[in-house]
Predict the 3D structure of the following.
Amino acid sequence: MLELKNLACGYGAFGAVHDLSLNLKAGTLTALLGANGAGKSSTLMCIAGHVAQQGGQIHFDGQDIGQLPPTERVRRGIAISPEGRRLFKDLTVEENLRVGGVIHPASYFAQDRDRVLALFPRLGERLDSLAGNLSGGEQQMLAIGRALMTRPRLIMIDELSLGLMPKVIDLCYQALKTLRNEGMTVLLVEQNTERALAIADGVCVLESGDVAWQGSAADARNDPELAA
Ligand code: ATP
């Protein structure tokens, strides 16, 4: 579904990612791992069209989307729950979901919102609350929910578990499993390697903008060097 060929991206003259090749099959979950500053967020933001592509290609459904603006990538089925969540804090939960669904006819809204609420029932209790007043876990659910409102086929989630309580992390991971079972393709950035490896199908580890390791999650789990 998504194929990165020798992708390079960065900021001005600075290269954050140098030569990343990665294939995501439809309906699989891939974990993108690595230390701070390895280039994980830059990769997701480049796929979404928000960080400059400096080389290589991004193919989605077999087509090169590298020149398309972010909105067109969303229309094709790519959504992101970005680092820091970037919610509209002065809008309510329901309004944030509306913003996510704005590319679709208004008649889709109720059905798509209810799908998000089925995944995250807690958000249903907070529909009229301002996003800025939510707990960290609720904000994470809302960021994912807002992305889902675009009706994506590929969802990219940056730092799913960062700063969340274990119980909430469980909920978020359960939601990911549900989404994958429904056929969604997931690209997940995580600092919590153990959690990510427990759920992922494929793994790519970045180190200073280069691929340090790539393979199946099963192989990753059995590789002591990688764990270290
Ligand atoms: P983290 O977990 O800390 O977010 P990461 O693996 O997601 O790490 P990136 O955020 O993609 O890494 O950063 C990759 C490199 O790009 C780092 O050297 C970082 O300092 C640099 N960088 C990130 N954002 C910008 C920016 N807006 N302008 C310039 N350089 C940036």
Notes: The chain has a mean pLDDT of 95.
